Amino acid sequence: MLEILRSIVQEVNDAPDLRAALEIIVRRVKQAVGADVCSVYLTDFDEQEHILRATDGLRHQAVDRVRLPLGKGLIGFVCARAEPVNLADAPAHPSYHFVTETGEQPYHGFLGVPIIQNRRVLGVLVVRQQKPRKFAELEETFLMTLASQLAGAITHAMASGELAAMEGAKHRQRRFMSGRSGSPGVGMGVAVVAFKSAELHLVPDRKADDPEREEESFLTAVESSRHEIMRLKERLGDSLPEEEVVLFDAWSMMLRSDSLVNSVLKLIREGCWAPSALRRTIEEHCRVFDKMEDPYMRERAADIRELGRRILSHLQREERWSEDYPAQTVLVGEEVSAVQIAEVPTGRLVGIVSATGSSSSHVAILARAFGVPAIMGVSDLQVSRLEGRELIVDGYRGRVFLDPPPSVFDEYRKLAEEVRAQSAEIELVKGLPSQTADGCRVPLYLNTGLVFEMGGLGVDEAEGVGLYRTELPFMVRDRFPSEDVQMSNYQRVLKLFHPRPVILRTLDIGGDKPLPYFPINESNPFLGWRGIRISLDHPEIFLTQLRAMLRAAVGFNNLRIMLPMISRVSEVVDAKTLIQQAYDELVQEGHPVQMPMIGVMIEVPAAVFQAGTLARLVDFISLGTNDLTQYLLAVDRNNPSVADIFDDMHPSVLKALMQVMRDAKPHVEEISVCGEMAGNPLSALLLVGMGYRKLSMSAGSLLRVKHILRQVNLGFAEYLVMSALRCEDAKAVHALMEGAMQEIGLLHLIRPATEALARDA
Ligand code: PEP
Ligand code: MG
Description:
Elements: H1 2-14, H2 18-33, E1 37-44, E2 49-56, E3 67-69, H3 73-81, E4 85-87, E5 109-117, E6 120-129, H4 137-160, H5 162-166, E7 176-178, E8 180-183, E9 186-194, H6 211-236, H7 242-256, H8 258-269, H9 274-290, H10 295-318, E10 329-333, H11 338-343, E11 349-354, H12 362-370, E12 374-376, E13 390-394, E14 399-402, H13 406-427, E15 444-448, E16 465-469, H14 472-475, H15 483-497, E17 502-505, H16 532-537, H17 539-552, E18 559-563, H18 569-588, E19 597-602, H19 605-609, H20 611-617, E20 620-623, H21 625-633, H22 651-664, E21 670-673, H23 681-690, E22 695-697, H24 702-709, H25 714-725, H26 730-743, H27 747-750, H28 754-758
Parallel strand pairs: 9-10, 10-11, 11-12, 15-16, 15-22, 16-17, 17-18, 18-19, 19-20, 20-21
Antiparallel strand pairs: 1-2, 1-6, 2-3, 4-5, 5-6, 7-14, 8-12, 9-13, 13-14
Helix pairs in contact: 1-2, 1-4, 2-4, 6-7, 6-8, 6-10, 8-9, 9-10, 15-17, 17-18, 20-22, 23-25, 25-26
Bound molecules: phosphoenolpyruvate (PEP) and magnesium ion.
Residues 564, 603, 624, 626-627 line the site of magnesium ion (MG).
């Protein structure tokens, strides 16, 4: 059964559209369980009906015609219960409803399983038998597994309007895919698919600008792959078992075979871009092998995929991606990265949509810094079908509209207008001091470093840099950047902000920031080798970075060094020793370096409970509330399935922040917050009420936070903290804060255009 399941899933994944996928399912399932009928009913929520969308066994003409009112019959019963219903004698069941159009005879055996996505029952997959038959448990789980596979495709078809199209144009409604808001705002533009190198299945369909050049690149890539395979065979020939060695010959034969090469060339000549022609041809070949019953032959599909990946990687080397970014680009990807964002030419990025990640992922943080709307964790995003499609990104509600009708465009244009008006209101505080209405100073600093250039964002408004993430120069290269390369990078930011202070954070790779040339394979990367742990284990990398930082500060002397992911006192002691070593070396070499202020991030619960001890060892501390929330609440900040429960306004997080303020304050001069909490006006207000006087945030948040702080008295912020600490959960804290904003007439700045959005909630 497992083998059959695997091959059906593969066939369904390769189906060109939903209709084809449903037909594959009903045909293969009927055969697999030896039923007389297999059908799929989908629910039309607008029309309140269950509609027969595919069948093998009932009259074909009944498809799309048989419609049951919502909740009617056994189909309605399965939907209402949201669990499988397995009956030996269906007509005896009180919900049984006899339908004549299907050519039904009274079938007795009935097994219906719901198709569910995100708690919503989308339809029913059903098998039926003329004779009384109770289906086996194994058959039930088999259907459930397939139904869960179908759910994603159905949700996508709903979002893309494909389902509506089955109904004809009159039913075309606004459709959208849902995710999490990663960055607020509205973006309207054209999708450009960002994908990682050599991931064949993610290669989007594109047209070739110059088919002759594509053809040439492809043939060169084939030739390079063949040489590579032969070299591998020579090198590994002696150490591999014979059957593995044969594989190299098989690959090189395939590369010479006309069927593979010619199929790709044919598609290229029809106007297809070489990588997508390759993907389609490999998929086609795999389908043939996947359908074979013999497990050995089926395994060959994996070999073909591997071969495809090899050719693709050569192809990518051959032709640098001549990515053509439209003026209004919406970057879409399975896992959009900071580097891909940085590659979009300035001013063209209007939205980001990622199938994975959540609002606390680094990509979302970056999007907020740019003020670009972003939606994370859109699980039913079918990336390869999106290239060049028109999208509206609703960063307020986490919705992506695909090829929206003009009415939806109109509505969002109005909304964008409202947002612009609101920005104008916020802009009025530009240049004014950051302080509460009663004059308590709260200097605001900038979080930056995730992109190459700051492009002036927030430079004038900020009183310095509160967090410079140094990872990017490491992420965009194919090796560790040299001391000189790093130095010029750091020098640029130190110079730009001089004489204002700049906190450079030492390398914080690991977690969701891997380096392509420094692979870390861990099942729990956020609890693993990350941040300071890597730096201390690799003093050669750490010392190079420290030397670059110290040298960069010569002549500016506004550098501060901050250590991430501190969970033990010894890490601070060891890191300080290495900083001293770098300093001594440079002095000996004749560089006029100065010892900078050194600080630690408090972002791990262990550090919260030792905040006083840590504070004694350093010159400043900064709270990384993103990681602190993740570790305190045991919620992976990148996992969309638990994004709902990632909340930095959880009372436990607030209590931890109170405790750090209480324990660290007597021992250290400066305490700041550089997690995203500082950039959200609601939580920023709570931080100020707790006693935090330095907040560091993305450029996109500076003016909004300042604007709100300037309208509130310190006493009010302190009162809100006392009330928040009495709340039982994060929801109550949000309600409290939003209520407070409403009271002082500022709610429209927290959730802009709420009214326009509510019309369609
Ligand atoms: C944090 O964890 O709050 C933080 C500021 O660091 P990062 O988001 O880079 O992990
Ligand atoms: Mg962190």
